[in-house]
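Blackboard transcription, Thursday session:
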Amino acid sequence: MTPGAAPRGGIWVATGVMTAALAIAPFVGVYPVFLMKALCFALFACAFNLLVGFGGLLSFGHAMFLGTAGYVCAHAAKIWGWPPELAILAGTLAATLLGVVAGALAIRRQGIYFAMITLALAQMMFFFYVQAPFTHGEDGIQAVPRGMLFGLLDLSETLIMYYVVLTIFVAAFLFICRIVNSPFGQVLQAIRENEPRAISLGYDAERYKLLAFVLSAALSGLAGSTKAIVFQLASLTDVHWTMSGEVVLMVLLGGMGTIFGPVVGAFAIIGLENYLSGFGQWVTVITGGIFVVCVLAFRRGIVGELGAWWAQRK
Amino acid sequence: MTEIFGVPTQALFGQLLIGLINGAFYALLSLGLAVIFGLLNIINFAHGAQYMMGAFCAWLLLEYWGVGYWWSLLLAPIAVGVTGVVIERTMLSRLYKLDHLYGLLLTFGIALIFQGLFTQHYGSSGQPYRLPTEFSGGYNLGFMFLPKYRAWVIVASLVVCLSTWYVIERTKLGSYLRAATENPSLVQAFGINVPRMITLTYGFGVGLAALAGVMAAPIYQVSPQMGANLIIVVFAVVVIGGMGSILGAILTGFGLGVIEGLTKVFYPEASNTVIFVIMVLVLLVKPAGMFGRER
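(Written on the board underneath:)
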Protein backbone atom coordinates (compact mmCIF):
# COMPACT_ATOMS: atom_id res chain seq x y z
CA MET A 1 0.00 0.00 0.00
CA THR A 2 2.40 2.72 1.07
CA PRO A 3 5.40 2.75 -1.20
CA GLY A 4 7.85 1.66 1.44
CA ALA A 5 11.40 2.77 1.52
CA ALA A 6 13.48 -0.31 2.24
CA PRO A 7 16.79 1.22 3.20
CA ARG A 8 19.63 -0.93 1.97
CA GLY A 9 22.63 0.53 3.68
CA GLY A 10 22.75 0.27 7.42
CA ILE A 11 20.28 -2.55 7.58
CA TRP A 12 22.94 -4.91 8.87
CA VAL A 13 24.01 -2.40 11.48
CA ALA A 14 20.44 -1.81 12.58
CA THR A 15 19.71 -5.54 12.74
CA GLY A 16 22.87 -6.05 14.77
CA VAL A 17 21.90 -3.30 17.22
CA MET A 18 18.40 -4.74 17.53
CA THR A 19 19.71 -8.26 18.15
CA ALA A 20 22.22 -7.04 20.73
CA ALA A 21 19.58 -4.99 22.52
CA LEU A 22 17.21 -7.97 22.62
CA ALA A 23 20.02 -10.27 23.78
CA ILE A 24 20.81 -8.15 26.84
CA ALA A 25 17.20 -7.09 27.54
CA PRO A 26 16.48 -9.86 30.09
CA PHE A 27 19.46 -8.69 32.13
CA VAL A 28 18.35 -5.08 32.37
CA GLY A 29 15.06 -5.87 33.99
CA VAL A 30 12.75 -6.67 31.08
CA TYR A 31 10.50 -9.61 31.85
CA PRO A 32 11.55 -12.49 29.51
CA VAL A 33 8.02 -13.85 29.08
CA PHE A 34 6.89 -10.44 27.88
CA LEU A 35 9.84 -10.35 25.46
CA MET A 36 9.03 -13.80 24.12
CA LYS A 37 5.41 -12.83 23.55
CA ALA A 38 6.47 -9.64 21.81
CA LEU A 39 9.02 -11.52 19.66
CA CYS A 40 6.43 -14.09 18.55
CA PHE A 41 4.10 -11.29 17.53
CA ALA A 42 6.95 -9.36 15.93
CA LEU A 43 7.69 -12.40 13.76
CA PHE A 44 3.99 -12.73 12.95
CA ALA A 45 3.83 -9.04 12.03
CA CYS A 46 6.97 -9.27 9.86
CA ALA A 47 5.45 -12.23 8.02
CA PHE A 48 2.25 -10.27 7.54
CA ASN A 49 4.18 -7.23 6.36
CA LEU A 50 5.89 -9.33 3.71
CA LEU A 51 2.46 -9.79 2.13
CA VAL A 52 0.83 -6.42 2.72
CA GLY A 53 3.84 -4.13 2.74
CA PHE A 54 5.75 -5.60 -0.19
CA GLY A 55 3.03 -7.49 -2.02
CA GLY A 56 0.26 -4.94 -1.48
CA LEU A 57 -2.17 -7.70 -0.50
CA LEU A 58 -4.15 -6.90 2.65
CA SER A 59 -5.15 -10.17 4.25
CA PHE A 60 -7.71 -10.03 7.01
CA GLY A 61 -7.39 -13.67 7.91
CA HIS A 62 -3.82 -14.23 8.97
CA ALA A 63 -4.95 -15.57 12.33
CA MET A 64 -5.75 -18.84 10.59
CA PHE A 65 -2.05 -19.47 9.97
CA LEU A 66 -0.99 -18.47 13.46
CA GLY A 67 -3.72 -20.57 15.04
CA THR A 68 -3.42 -23.61 12.78
CA ALA A 69 0.30 -23.84 13.35
CA GLY A 70 -0.26 -23.45 17.08
CA TYR A 71 -2.78 -26.28 17.19
CA VAL A 72 -0.71 -28.67 15.06
CA CYS A 73 2.48 -27.89 16.98
CA ALA A 74 0.78 -28.27 20.38
CA HIS A 75 -0.89 -31.50 19.31
CA ALA A 76 2.36 -32.94 17.97
CA ALA A 77 4.28 -32.00 21.11
CA LYS A 78 1.66 -33.10 23.61
CA ILE A 79 -0.23 -36.05 22.12
CA TRP A 80 2.39 -37.50 19.77
CA GLY A 81 5.25 -36.56 22.10
CA TRP A 82 7.38 -35.06 19.33
CA PRO A 83 10.46 -33.04 20.31
CA PRO A 84 9.98 -29.24 20.05
CA GLU A 85 11.98 -28.81 16.83
CA LEU A 86 9.82 -31.33 14.99
CA ALA A 87 6.62 -29.99 16.52
CA ILE A 88 7.48 -26.47 15.38
CA LEU A 89 8.32 -27.80 11.95
CA ALA A 90 5.01 -29.67 11.77
CA GLY A 91 3.09 -26.53 12.74
CA THR A 92 4.93 -24.43 10.18
CA LEU A 93 4.31 -27.04 7.50
CA ALA A 94 0.58 -27.14 8.30
CA ALA A 95 0.37 -23.36 7.98
CA THR A 96 2.28 -23.54 4.68
CA LEU A 97 -0.16 -26.06 3.24
CA LEU A 98 -3.11 -23.99 4.41
CA GLY A 99 -1.38 -21.01 2.83
CA VAL A 100 -1.21 -22.76 -0.53
CA VAL A 101 -4.94 -23.52 -0.51
CA ALA A 102 -6.11 -20.19 0.94
CA GLY A 103 -3.71 -18.23 -1.25
CA ALA A 104 -4.77 -19.97 -4.45
CA LEU A 105 -8.39 -19.06 -3.66
CA ALA A 106 -7.86 -15.53 -2.39
CA ILE A 107 -5.64 -14.22 -5.19
CA ARG A 108 -8.46 -14.87 -7.61
CA ARG A 109 -9.87 -11.54 -6.46
CA GLN A 110 -8.17 -8.25 -5.67
CA GLY A 111 -8.23 -5.41 -3.20
CA ILE A 112 -11.26 -5.32 -0.95
CA TYR A 113 -12.47 -8.71 -2.11
CA PHE A 114 -9.12 -10.24 -1.25
CA ALA A 115 -9.49 -8.92 2.29
CA MET A 116 -13.05 -10.23 2.61
CA ILE A 117 -12.17 -13.66 1.21
CA THR A 118 -9.25 -14.16 3.57
CA LEU A 119 -11.45 -13.02 6.45
CA ALA A 120 -14.19 -15.48 5.49
CA LEU A 121 -11.72 -18.37 5.05
CA ALA A 122 -10.25 -17.63 8.46
CA GLN A 123 -13.72 -17.61 9.99
CA MET A 124 -14.39 -20.98 8.38
CA MET A 125 -11.23 -22.35 9.99
CA PHE A 126 -12.33 -20.81 13.29
CA PHE A 127 -15.65 -22.69 13.19
CA PHE A 128 -13.81 -25.84 12.20
CA TYR A 129 -11.53 -25.56 15.23
CA VAL A 130 -14.48 -24.80 17.51
CA GLN A 131 -16.01 -28.14 16.54
CA ALA A 132 -12.96 -30.35 15.93
CA PRO A 133 -12.40 -32.61 18.95
CA PHE A 134 -8.59 -32.41 18.97
CA THR A 135 -8.58 -28.69 19.76
CA HIS A 136 -10.66 -29.15 22.95
CA GLY A 137 -12.88 -26.20 22.00
CA GLU A 138 -12.91 -23.37 24.51
CA ASP A 139 -10.23 -24.97 26.71
CA GLY A 140 -7.65 -25.24 23.97
CA ILE A 141 -4.67 -27.59 24.12
CA GLN A 142 -3.19 -26.88 27.53
CA ALA A 143 0.02 -27.88 29.30
CA VAL A 144 1.99 -28.47 26.11
CA PRO A 145 5.44 -29.75 27.12
CA ARG A 146 8.30 -27.49 26.06
CA GLY A 147 10.66 -30.47 25.92
CA MET A 148 14.34 -30.65 25.05
CA LEU A 149 15.41 -28.90 21.86
CA PHE A 150 17.56 -31.31 19.77
CA GLY A 151 17.69 -33.39 22.95
CA LEU A 152 20.20 -30.89 24.37
CA LEU A 153 18.57 -27.65 25.45
CA ASP A 154 16.04 -27.77 28.25
CA LEU A 155 13.37 -25.32 27.14
CA SER A 156 11.62 -25.30 30.49
CA GLU A 157 14.42 -22.96 31.58
CA THR A 158 12.98 -19.54 30.77
CA LEU A 159 16.26 -17.97 29.65
CA ILE A 160 17.15 -20.86 27.33
CA MET A 161 13.67 -20.66 25.87
CA TYR A 162 14.14 -16.94 25.42
CA TYR A 163 17.35 -17.27 23.46
CA VAL A 164 15.86 -19.99 21.28
CA VAL A 165 12.93 -17.69 20.49
CA LEU A 166 15.34 -14.84 19.80
CA THR A 167 17.37 -17.05 17.44
CA ILE A 168 14.24 -18.12 15.57
CA PHE A 169 13.11 -14.52 15.32
CA VAL A 170 16.41 -13.13 14.07
CA ALA A 171 16.82 -15.94 11.54
CA ALA A 172 13.32 -15.37 10.18
CA PHE A 173 13.86 -11.62 10.18
CA LEU A 174 17.04 -11.95 8.10
CA PHE A 175 15.25 -14.38 5.80
CA ILE A 176 12.51 -11.78 5.23
CA CYS A 177 15.13 -9.07 4.55
CA ARG A 178 16.71 -11.40 2.03
CA ILE A 179 13.37 -12.08 0.34
CA VAL A 180 12.56 -8.38 0.11
CA ASN A 181 15.90 -7.50 -1.47
CA SER A 182 15.99 -10.51 -3.78
CA PRO A 183 14.89 -10.30 -7.43
CA PHE A 184 11.70 -12.02 -6.32
CA GLY A 185 11.04 -9.27 -3.77
CA GLN A 186 11.71 -6.56 -6.32
CA VAL A 187 9.27 -8.08 -8.81
CA LEU A 188 6.74 -8.40 -6.01
CA GLN A 189 7.04 -4.69 -5.28
CA ALA A 190 6.74 -3.92 -8.97
CA ILE A 191 3.48 -5.88 -9.01
CA ARG A 192 2.29 -3.96 -5.97
CA GLU A 193 2.97 -0.67 -7.69
CA ASN A 194 1.53 -1.51 -11.07
CA GLU A 195 0.24 -4.98 -11.73
CA PRO A 196 -0.78 -4.63 -15.41
CA ARG A 197 2.64 -3.22 -16.19
CA ALA A 198 4.44 -6.05 -14.43
CA ILE A 199 2.32 -8.53 -16.36
CA SER A 200 3.10 -6.77 -19.64
CA LEU A 201 6.79 -7.10 -18.79
CA GLY A 202 6.28 -10.84 -18.77
CA TYR A 203 5.99 -11.57 -15.07
CA ASP A 204 3.42 -14.10 -14.00
CA ALA A 205 1.84 -11.89 -11.32
CA GLU A 206 -0.39 -14.63 -9.93
CA ARG A 207 2.56 -16.91 -9.27
CA TYR A 208 4.50 -14.17 -7.50
CA LYS A 209 1.52 -13.25 -5.39
CA LEU A 210 0.84 -16.85 -4.48
CA LEU A 211 4.45 -17.44 -3.50
CA ALA A 212 4.41 -14.30 -1.36
CA PHE A 213 1.20 -15.50 0.27
CA VAL A 214 2.63 -18.94 1.00
CA LEU A 215 5.88 -17.52 2.39
CA SER A 216 3.91 -15.18 4.61
CA ALA A 217 1.69 -18.03 5.78
CA ALA A 218 4.69 -20.25 6.52
CA LEU A 219 6.44 -17.57 8.57
CA SER A 220 3.20 -16.79 10.40
CA GLY A 221 3.02 -20.50 11.12
CA LEU A 222 6.55 -20.43 12.51
CA ALA A 223 5.42 -17.63 14.83
CA GLY A 224 2.32 -19.58 15.86
CA SER A 225 4.25 -22.79 16.55
CA THR A 226 6.87 -20.98 18.60
CA LYS A 227 4.14 -19.20 20.53
CA ALA A 228 2.44 -22.51 21.32
CA ILE A 229 5.69 -23.94 22.72
CA VAL A 230 6.50 -20.79 24.69
CA PHE A 231 3.10 -20.43 26.32
CA GLN A 232 2.44 -24.19 26.34
CA LEU A 233 -1.01 -23.41 25.00
CA ALA A 234 -2.93 -23.37 21.73
CA SER A 235 -6.35 -21.77 21.98
CA LEU A 236 -9.18 -20.28 19.96
CA THR A 237 -7.91 -16.75 20.66
CA ASP A 238 -5.21 -17.28 18.06
CA VAL A 239 -7.66 -18.18 15.28
CA HIS A 240 -10.23 -15.53 16.07
CA TRP A 241 -10.69 -12.61 13.67
CA THR A 242 -9.62 -10.15 16.37
CA MET A 243 -6.14 -11.67 16.06
CA SER A 244 -6.16 -11.00 12.32
CA GLY A 245 -7.10 -7.42 13.09
CA GLU A 246 -4.39 -7.13 15.71
CA VAL A 247 -1.61 -8.05 13.31
CA VAL A 248 -2.93 -5.55 10.77
CA LEU A 249 -2.77 -2.92 13.50
CA MET A 250 0.79 -3.82 14.49
CA VAL A 251 2.00 -3.45 10.92
CA LEU A 252 -0.02 -0.29 10.32
CA LEU A 253 1.26 1.34 13.50
CA GLY A 254 4.86 0.33 12.93
CA GLY A 255 4.89 1.15 9.24
CA MET A 256 3.71 -0.94 6.29
CA GLY A 257 6.41 -1.81 3.83
CA THR A 258 9.25 -0.96 6.18
CA ILE A 259 11.68 -3.59 7.42
CA PHE A 260 11.64 -2.66 11.10
CA GLY A 261 8.12 -1.26 11.32
CA PRO A 262 6.37 -4.53 12.21
CA VAL A 263 8.83 -5.18 15.04
CA VAL A 264 8.27 -1.72 16.49
CA GLY A 265 4.51 -2.05 16.03
CA ALA A 266 4.39 -5.47 17.69
CA PHE A 267 6.37 -4.31 20.71
CA ALA A 268 4.22 -1.18 21.00
CA ILE A 269 0.91 -3.06 20.84
CA ILE A 270 1.96 -5.94 23.11
CA GLY A 271 3.40 -3.43 25.57
CA LEU A 272 0.20 -1.43 25.47
CA GLU A 273 -1.94 -4.52 26.03
CA ASN A 274 0.26 -5.57 28.93
CA TYR A 275 -0.03 -2.13 30.45
CA LEU A 276 -3.78 -1.86 29.95
CA SER A 277 -4.66 -5.45 30.85
CA GLY A 278 -6.66 -4.31 33.90
CA PHE A 279 -8.90 -1.97 31.95
CA GLY A 280 -11.21 -4.54 30.36
CA GLN A 281 -12.90 -3.49 27.18
CA TRP A 282 -11.10 -0.16 27.02
CA VAL A 283 -8.29 -2.08 25.31
CA THR A 284 -10.62 -2.75 22.37
CA VAL A 285 -11.68 0.90 22.29
CA ILE A 286 -8.08 2.13 22.37
CA THR A 287 -7.07 -0.40 19.71
CA GLY A 288 -9.85 0.92 17.50
CA GLY A 289 -8.77 4.47 18.24
CA ILE A 290 -5.19 3.74 17.19
CA PHE A 291 -6.53 2.28 13.94
CA VAL A 292 -8.50 5.43 13.23
CA VAL A 293 -5.63 7.76 14.09
CA CYS A 294 -3.14 5.74 12.04
CA VAL A 295 -5.37 5.69 8.98
CA LEU A 296 -6.31 9.37 9.18
CA ALA A 297 -3.06 11.00 10.16
CA PHE A 298 -0.25 8.53 10.38
CA ARG A 299 -0.39 6.24 7.38
CA ARG A 300 3.34 5.65 7.13
CA GLY A 301 3.51 4.36 10.70
CA ILE A 302 6.20 5.03 13.27
CA VAL A 303 9.16 3.77 11.27
CA GLY A 304 7.83 5.17 8.00
CA GLU A 305 7.38 8.65 9.51
CA LEU A 306 10.83 8.51 11.10
CA GLY A 307 12.34 7.48 7.78
CA ALA A 308 10.55 10.30 5.96
CA TRP A 309 11.70 12.78 8.57
CA TRP A 310 15.28 11.51 8.23
CA ALA A 311 15.17 11.72 4.45
CA GLN A 312 13.85 15.28 4.62
CA ARG A 313 16.53 16.37 7.05
CA LYS A 314 19.33 15.32 4.75
CA MET B 1 -45.88 -37.64 11.57
CA THR B 2 -45.09 -36.90 7.94
CA GLU B 3 -41.52 -37.02 6.80
CA ILE B 4 -39.52 -35.75 3.81
CA PHE B 5 -36.18 -37.43 3.11
CA GLY B 6 -36.41 -39.00 6.55
CA VAL B 7 -36.76 -35.63 8.26
CA PRO B 8 -39.98 -34.69 10.08
CA THR B 9 -41.72 -31.93 8.13
CA GLN B 10 -42.11 -29.87 11.31
CA ALA B 11 -38.34 -29.69 11.76
CA LEU B 12 -37.74 -29.14 8.07
CA PHE B 13 -40.12 -26.21 7.78
CA GLY B 14 -38.99 -24.85 11.13
CA GLN B 15 -35.39 -24.68 9.95
CA LEU B 16 -36.49 -23.37 6.60
CA LEU B 17 -38.21 -20.53 8.40
CA ILE B 18 -35.13 -19.78 10.50
CA GLY B 19 -33.14 -19.86 7.29
CA LEU B 20 -35.48 -17.36 5.67
CA ILE B 21 -35.22 -15.07 8.72
CA ASN B 22 -31.42 -15.24 8.67
CA GLY B 23 -31.57 -14.73 4.93
CA ALA B 24 -33.66 -11.60 5.44
CA PHE B 25 -30.91 -10.15 7.60
CA TYR B 26 -28.18 -11.24 5.18
CA ALA B 27 -30.10 -9.55 2.39
CA LEU B 28 -30.65 -6.30 4.31
CA LEU B 29 -27.04 -6.10 5.41
CA SER B 30 -25.46 -7.05 2.11
CA LEU B 31 -27.78 -4.60 0.39
CA GLY B 32 -26.48 -1.81 2.62
CA LEU B 33 -22.90 -2.89 1.94
CA ALA B 34 -23.54 -2.96 -1.80
CA VAL B 35 -25.15 0.49 -1.82
CA ILE B 36 -22.23 1.98 0.12
CA PHE B 37 -19.67 0.13 -1.98
CA GLY B 38 -21.28 1.27 -5.21
CA LEU B 39 -20.73 4.94 -4.52
CA LEU B 40 -17.93 5.12 -1.95
CA ASN B 41 -15.88 2.17 -3.15
CA ILE B 42 -15.23 1.11 0.41
CA ILE B 43 -16.34 -1.91 2.34
CA ASN B 44 -18.02 -0.71 5.48
CA PHE B 45 -16.52 -2.93 8.16
CA ALA B 46 -18.50 -1.04 10.79
CA HIS B 47 -21.73 -2.40 9.28
CA GLY B 48 -22.02 -5.10 11.93
CA ALA B 49 -21.41 -2.60 14.72
CA GLN B 50 -24.03 -0.28 13.24
CA TYR B 51 -26.51 -3.16 13.09
CA MET B 52 -25.77 -3.77 16.77
CA MET B 53 -26.23 -0.07 17.50
CA GLY B 54 -29.64 -0.14 15.82
CA ALA B 55 -30.73 -2.99 18.07
CA PHE B 56 -29.34 -1.24 21.15
CA CYS B 57 -31.03 1.99 20.15
CA ALA B 58 -34.39 0.21 20.07
CA TRP B 59 -33.69 -1.45 23.41
CA LEU B 60 -32.63 1.82 25.05
CA LEU B 61 -35.68 3.64 23.68
CA LEU B 62 -37.95 0.98 25.16
CA GLU B 63 -36.17 0.62 28.50
CA TYR B 64 -35.62 4.28 29.33
CA TRP B 65 -38.29 6.23 27.49
CA GLY B 66 -40.91 3.60 26.91
CA VAL B 67 -40.78 4.23 23.17
CA GLY B 68 -42.27 1.23 21.41
CA TYR B 69 -41.20 -0.93 18.51
CA TRP B 70 -42.86 1.04 15.72
CA TRP B 71 -41.25 4.33 16.66
CA SER B 72 -37.92 2.56 17.11
CA LEU B 73 -38.22 1.25 13.61
CA LEU B 74 -38.14 4.86 12.47
CA LEU B 75 -35.99 6.57 15.11
CA ALA B 76 -33.14 4.06 15.47
CA PRO B 77 -32.15 4.07 11.78
CA ILE B 78 -32.25 7.88 11.77
CA ALA B 79 -30.13 8.15 14.92
CA VAL B 80 -27.55 5.61 13.74
CA GLY B 81 -27.70 7.06 10.23
CA VAL B 82 -26.78 10.47 11.67
CA THR B 83 -23.71 8.99 13.35
CA GLY B 84 -22.89 7.51 9.94
CA VAL B 85 -23.15 10.94 8.32
CA VAL B 86 -20.81 12.37 10.97
CA ILE B 87 -18.32 9.56 10.40
CA GLU B 88 -18.41 10.10 6.65
CA ARG B 89 -18.02 13.88 6.90
CA THR B 90 -15.25 13.89 9.48
CA MET B 91 -13.25 10.81 8.55
CA LEU B 92 -14.17 8.76 5.50
CA SER B 93 -14.27 11.79 3.18
CA ARG B 94 -10.54 12.30 3.77
CA LEU B 95 -9.72 8.89 2.35
CA TYR B 96 -11.37 8.86 -1.08
CA LYS B 97 -8.19 9.76 -2.92
CA LEU B 98 -6.23 6.94 -1.26
CA ASP B 99 -6.17 3.21 -1.69
CA HIS B 100 -9.65 1.85 -0.91
CA LEU B 101 -8.20 -0.49 1.64
CA TYR B 102 -7.72 2.44 4.01
CA GLY B 103 -11.49 2.81 4.17
CA LEU B 104 -11.70 -0.81 5.26
CA LEU B 105 -9.08 -0.26 7.95
CA LEU B 106 -10.75 2.92 9.19
CA THR B 107 -14.20 1.35 9.47
CA PHE B 108 -12.63 -1.68 11.18
CA GLY B 109 -11.21 0.66 13.81
CA ILE B 110 -14.57 2.39 14.18
CA ALA B 111 -16.26 -0.99 14.62
CA LEU B 112 -13.82 -1.88 17.39
CA ILE B 113 -14.45 1.43 19.15
CA PHE B 114 -18.24 1.04 19.11
CA GLN B 115 -18.11 -2.60 20.08
CA GLY B 116 -15.69 -1.93 22.92
CA LEU B 117 -17.72 1.01 24.25
CA PHE B 118 -20.97 -0.96 24.26
CA THR B 119 -19.36 -4.01 25.85
CA GLN B 120 -17.75 -1.83 28.49
CA HIS B 121 -21.04 -0.16 29.31
CA TYR B 122 -23.59 -2.95 28.97
CA GLY B 123 -21.51 -6.09 29.47
CA SER B 124 -21.22 -8.85 26.92
CA SER B 125 -24.35 -10.75 27.97
CA GLY B 126 -27.44 -10.21 25.87
CA GLN B 127 -30.47 -8.13 26.80
CA PRO B 128 -33.90 -9.44 25.85
CA TYR B 129 -36.18 -7.13 23.87
CA ARG B 130 -39.86 -7.58 24.61
CA LEU B 131 -41.91 -8.60 21.63
CA PRO B 132 -44.60 -6.00 20.86
CA THR B 133 -47.99 -7.38 21.96
CA GLU B 134 -49.54 -7.14 18.51
CA PHE B 135 -47.03 -9.74 17.34
CA SER B 136 -47.76 -12.39 19.97
CA GLY B 137 -49.26 -15.54 18.60
CA GLY B 138 -49.04 -16.78 15.08
CA TYR B 139 -50.72 -18.52 12.20
CA ASN B 140 -51.34 -22.22 11.91
CA LEU B 141 -50.56 -23.06 8.32
CA GLY B 142 -51.59 -26.68 8.67
CA PHE B 143 -48.10 -28.10 8.09
CA MET B 144 -46.37 -25.71 10.51
CA PHE B 145 -46.85 -22.90 13.01
CA LEU B 146 -45.74 -19.48 11.78
CA PRO B 147 -45.16 -16.91 14.55
CA LYS B 148 -46.51 -13.50 13.54
CA TYR B 149 -43.29 -11.64 14.18
CA ARG B 150 -41.23 -13.95 11.97
CA ALA B 151 -43.70 -13.51 9.15
CA TRP B 152 -43.46 -9.75 9.63
CA VAL B 153 -39.64 -9.79 9.47
CA ILE B 154 -39.63 -11.66 6.19
CA VAL B 155 -42.29 -9.46 4.61
CA ALA B 156 -40.81 -6.21 5.94
CA SER B 157 -37.30 -6.94 4.79
CA LEU B 158 -38.55 -7.99 1.38
CA VAL B 159 -40.45 -4.70 1.12
CA VAL B 160 -37.41 -2.67 2.22
CA CYS B 161 -35.10 -4.52 -0.15
CA LEU B 162 -37.39 -4.22 -3.13
CA SER B 163 -38.13 -0.53 -2.52
CA THR B 164 -34.41 0.15 -2.31
CA TRP B 165 -33.98 -1.69 -5.57
CA TYR B 166 -36.84 0.33 -7.09
CA VAL B 167 -35.44 3.67 -5.95
CA ILE B 168 -31.96 2.90 -7.27
CA GLU B 169 -32.90 1.24 -10.53
CA ARG B 170 -36.13 2.98 -11.52
CA THR B 171 -36.20 6.57 -10.25
CA LYS B 172 -34.49 9.83 -11.21
CA LEU B 173 -32.66 9.97 -7.88
CA GLY B 174 -31.43 6.44 -8.45
CA SER B 175 -30.21 7.30 -11.92
CA TYR B 176 -28.10 10.13 -10.46
CA LEU B 177 -26.73 7.65 -7.97
CA ARG B 178 -25.86 5.11 -10.62
CA ALA B 179 -24.33 7.79 -12.81
CA ALA B 180 -22.18 9.00 -9.92
CA THR B 181 -21.02 5.42 -9.43
CA GLU B 182 -19.82 5.31 -13.02
CA ASN B 183 -18.31 8.78 -13.32
CA PRO B 184 -18.55 11.15 -10.36
CA SER B 185 -16.75 14.11 -11.91
CA LEU B 186 -19.01 14.17 -14.96
CA VAL B 187 -22.13 14.03 -12.76
CA GLN B 188 -20.72 16.87 -10.69
CA ALA B 189 -20.20 18.88 -13.85
CA PHE B 190 -23.95 18.57 -14.50
CA GLY B 191 -24.54 20.48 -11.28
CA ILE B 192 -25.30 17.65 -8.92
CA ASN B 193 -23.77 17.87 -5.49
CA VAL B 194 -21.90 14.57 -5.49
CA PRO B 195 -20.16 14.91 -2.10
CA ARG B 196 -23.52 15.46 -0.42
CA MET B 197 -24.94 12.49 -2.30
CA ILE B 198 -22.06 10.34 -1.07
CA THR B 199 -22.66 11.48 2.52
CA LEU B 200 -26.35 10.72 2.34
CA THR B 201 -25.72 7.38 0.68
CA TYR B 202 -23.45 6.34 3.51
CA GLY B 203 -26.04 7.55 6.01
CA PHE B 204 -28.71 5.55 4.20
CA GLY B 205 -26.62 2.37 4.09
CA VAL B 206 -25.86 2.71 7.78
CA GLY B 207 -29.53 3.34 8.45
CA LEU B 208 -30.38 0.09 6.65
CA ALA B 209 -28.00 -1.75 8.97
CA ALA B 210 -29.65 -0.13 11.99
CA LEU B 211 -33.10 -1.04 10.65
CA ALA B 212 -31.99 -4.66 10.39
CA GLY B 213 -30.77 -4.34 13.98
CA VAL B 214 -34.16 -3.13 15.22
CA MET B 215 -35.91 -5.97 13.42
CA ALA B 216 -33.44 -8.45 14.89
CA ALA B 217 -33.84 -7.17 18.46
CA PRO B 218 -36.96 -9.23 19.40
CA ILE B 219 -35.56 -12.39 17.77
CA TYR B 220 -31.97 -12.44 18.94
CA GLN B 221 -30.59 -11.11 22.20
CA VAL B 222 -29.42 -7.51 22.03
CA SER B 223 -25.71 -7.83 22.72
CA PRO B 224 -22.60 -5.85 21.76
CA GLN B 225 -21.23 -8.88 19.92
CA MET B 226 -24.32 -9.56 17.81
CA GLY B 227 -22.95 -7.81 14.75
CA ALA B 228 -19.35 -8.95 14.77
CA ASN B 229 -19.79 -12.54 13.69
CA LEU B 230 -22.75 -11.79 11.46
CA ILE B 231 -20.81 -9.29 9.40
CA ILE B 232 -18.18 -11.85 8.42
CA VAL B 233 -20.89 -14.15 7.09
CA VAL B 234 -22.36 -11.19 5.24
CA PHE B 235 -18.93 -10.53 3.70
CA ALA B 236 -18.96 -14.09 2.38
CA VAL B 237 -22.49 -13.48 1.06
CA VAL B 238 -21.22 -10.38 -0.71
CA VAL B 239 -18.30 -12.28 -2.24
CA ILE B 240 -20.69 -15.00 -3.45
CA GLY B 241 -23.19 -12.56 -4.91
CA GLY B 242 -20.76 -10.01 -6.21
CA MET B 243 -21.59 -6.38 -5.55
CA GLY B 244 -22.52 -5.46 -9.10
CA SER B 245 -26.25 -5.86 -8.69
CA ILE B 246 -28.76 -4.85 -6.02
CA LEU B 247 -31.19 -7.60 -6.93
CA GLY B 248 -28.32 -10.06 -6.85
CA ALA B 249 -27.47 -9.06 -3.28
CA ILE B 250 -31.08 -9.59 -2.19
CA LEU B 251 -31.39 -12.97 -3.93
CA THR B 252 -28.07 -14.26 -2.61
CA GLY B 253 -28.94 -13.13 0.90
CA PHE B 254 -32.24 -14.99 1.03
CA GLY B 255 -30.92 -17.97 -0.90
CA LEU B 256 -27.94 -18.51 1.36
CA GLY B 257 -30.11 -18.15 4.45
CA VAL B 258 -32.32 -20.96 3.18
CA ILE B 259 -29.34 -23.15 2.27
CA GLU B 260 -27.93 -22.60 5.75
CA GLY B 261 -31.27 -23.54 7.30
CA LEU B 262 -31.46 -26.73 5.23
CA THR B 263 -27.91 -27.64 6.21
CA LYS B 264 -28.99 -27.43 9.83
CA VAL B 265 -31.55 -30.15 9.11
CA PHE B 266 -29.50 -32.51 7.01
CA TYR B 267 -25.94 -32.02 8.23
CA PRO B 268 -25.93 -29.83 11.36
CA GLU B 269 -22.14 -29.99 11.85
CA ALA B 270 -21.60 -27.93 8.71
CA SER B 271 -24.27 -25.30 9.33
CA ASN B 272 -21.74 -22.71 10.53
CA THR B 273 -19.38 -23.23 7.64
CA VAL B 274 -21.66 -23.99 4.68
CA ILE B 275 -21.75 -20.38 3.47
CA PHE B 276 -17.95 -20.21 3.49
CA VAL B 277 -17.73 -23.49 1.62
CA ILE B 278 -20.12 -22.13 -1.00
CA MET B 279 -17.94 -19.04 -1.22
CA VAL B 280 -14.92 -21.23 -1.97
CA LEU B 281 -16.83 -23.10 -4.67
CA VAL B 282 -18.09 -19.90 -6.28
CA LEU B 283 -14.55 -18.49 -6.27
CA LEU B 284 -13.32 -21.58 -8.06
CA VAL B 285 -16.01 -21.50 -10.72
CA LYS B 286 -16.84 -17.82 -11.14
CA PRO B 287 -14.41 -15.57 -9.29
CA ALA B 288 -16.41 -12.40 -9.92
CA GLY B 289 -19.38 -13.75 -7.97
CA MET B 290 -22.71 -14.94 -9.25
CA PHE B 291 -24.03 -11.48 -10.15
CA GLY B 292 -20.79 -9.52 -10.21
CA ARG B 293 -18.55 -8.22 -12.90
CA GLU B 294 -14.79 -8.03 -12.66
CA ARG B 295 -13.75 -4.43 -12.06
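Lecturer's comment: Residues 131 and 137 of chain A are 7 Å apart (CA to CA).
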